[in-house]
Design goal:
Layout: E1 17-20, H1 27-45, E2 51-56, H2 62-76, E3 79-85, H3 88-97, E4 102-106, E5 115-121, H4 130-142, E6 151-154, H5 158-168, E7 177-181, H6 191-198, E8 201-205, H7 223-236, E9 240-244, E10 251-254, E11 260-261, H8 263-277, E12 282-286, H9 292-295, H10 297-301, E13 305-309, H11 313-323, E14 327-329, E15 335-337, H12 348-360, H13 366-371
Parallel strand pairs: 2-3, 2-4, 3-6, 7-8, 7-9, 12-13, 12-14
Antiparallel strand pairs: 1-5, 4-5, 9-10, 10-11, 14-15
Helix pairs in contact: 1-2, 1-4, 5-6, 8-12
Length: 376
């Protein structure tokens, strides 16, 4: 018997699509999502055979979901370029490197097992915002699909290209001892290699891939994950602790004394450090962030401007893009770096690298640097 279509309309969210699988969506539903996305890409690019980069995270069911999505995309005429096991930022990077027309990343990010979803985008460096998500939902649920003949190809070893791009630009002078925690999520095969590559001494914590997440979810806001990083930082006398989420687009930071540093304060420290070599720059922060950006003496001295904008990684990402800002910081831990530091999208490993540069440029411990900020 043919599988009955199951696709819960509430899975279409403001910036991405997310469902419990197979309770709220089944493979037929995923295939239809692929048809909807393929049709939307063709409508926007005005190409019969646009090229779309596809990747997936390390969950037991992510590959079968990717196969169903690809089937839908190909049926509309899309050419799929499958880069395999990926982080979300690796898929975003691939759109620039491979000069493709769109991206789709199969990931449930930091969510518990049972969840799946897709992060997607057409304009380079930008993921779908509410307008595009509403359009995708209407095309998919109304089955207004384009028909065409597409194809696919596997792109081998693209992880090496992504790793080398970050390593080559970011070599450190100082040896920084960093605890790198990945919660057994996909970042485990990326973050330690990249941070070692730039010159860190890396202490790995739960970096082996295990889709059962035996200890805790890979989520830098999860208290269990934070406590494990704190313990490791203290035991190893580390300079810094990093915790990466399931698809590698966010990072949490612990200082050398084992204190969690809120992301908006980390953003301010990074902005201060960058402002010394990038005077007259613009930074974007979300409205949940500390008001210190607008009064900061270092930013003022370097004639930098900070704009506060709507919360939501899609909103901040677009504002960074539209304002040609050097960087954007969201309190949730999504950080965005434009050229020459990045390509505008959120990448937790690149964010960790910018923290390393901050330590590299100062002869102070992280705890000393954070104490220089006014108490709020």
């Amino acid at each position: 018997m043919q599988e009955m279509l199951k696709i819960d309309p509430f899975g279409f969210r403001e910036y991405d699509a997310r469902w419990l699988y197979p309770d709220n969506i089944n493979l037929k539903g995923i295939e239809n999502l692929g048809k909807g996305l393929g049709s939307q890409i063709i409508n926007h690019t005005k190409k019969n055979n646009p090229r779309i980069v596809v990747g997936h995270d390390y969950r037991s069911y992510s590959e079968e979901i990717k196969l169903a999505l690809k089937k839908g995309l190909i049926s509309t005429g899309c050419f799929v370029e499958d880069i395999g096991l990926s982080l979300s930022p690796m898929v975003y990077f691939a759109q620039f490197d491979l000069k493709s027309d769109a991206v789709a990343m199969i990931t449930a990010s930091h969510n518990e097992n049972g969840w799946t979803g897709v992060k997607m985008g057409i304009k380079k460096g930008l993921t779908h915002a509410p307008e595009e998500m509403k359009e995708l939902k209407e095309i998919t649920l109304n089955q207004n699909f384009t028909k065409g003949e597409g194809n696919e190809k596997q792109i081998k070893n693209f992880d090496k290209v992504y790793k080398e791009d970050l390593i080559d630009k970011n070599k450190l002078r100082k040896k920084i001892k960093a605890v790198v925690a990945c919660g057994n999520g996909t970042a485990g095969i990326f973050a330690p290699d990249i941070l070692r590559g730039i010159g860190c001494e890396v202490i790995e914590l739960d970096c082996n891939l295990d889709w059962n997440f035996p200890k805790y979810n890979p989520n830098p806001e999860d208290l269990e994950m934070l406590h494990a990083i704190v313990k490791s930082v203290k035991e190893n006398n580390a300079d810094i602790g990093f915790g990466f989420d399931g698809d590698g687009d966010r990072v949490g930071v612990i200082d050398n004394e084992g204190n969690e540093i809120f992301s908006d304060k980390i953003g301010l420290l990074i902005a201060r450090n960058l402002s010394n070599s990038h005077r007259n720059s613009k930074f974007i922060v979300d409205v949940k962030s500390t008001g210190l950006y607008s009064t900061d003496k270092v930013l003022k001295k370097n004639q930098c401007e900070t704009l506060y904008w709507k919360t939501g990684h899609s909103h901040i990402k677009r504002k960074v893009h539209n304002e040609k800002a050097l960087a954007g910081f969201e309190k949730s831990g999504h950080f965005f770096f434009n050229q020459p530091l990045g390509y505008g999208y959120d990448d937790g490993i690149n964010s960790a690298i910018q923290v390393c540069h901050l330590l590299n440029n100062q002869d102070k411990k992280m705890s000393e640097i954070i104490k220089e900020l006014p108490t709020t």
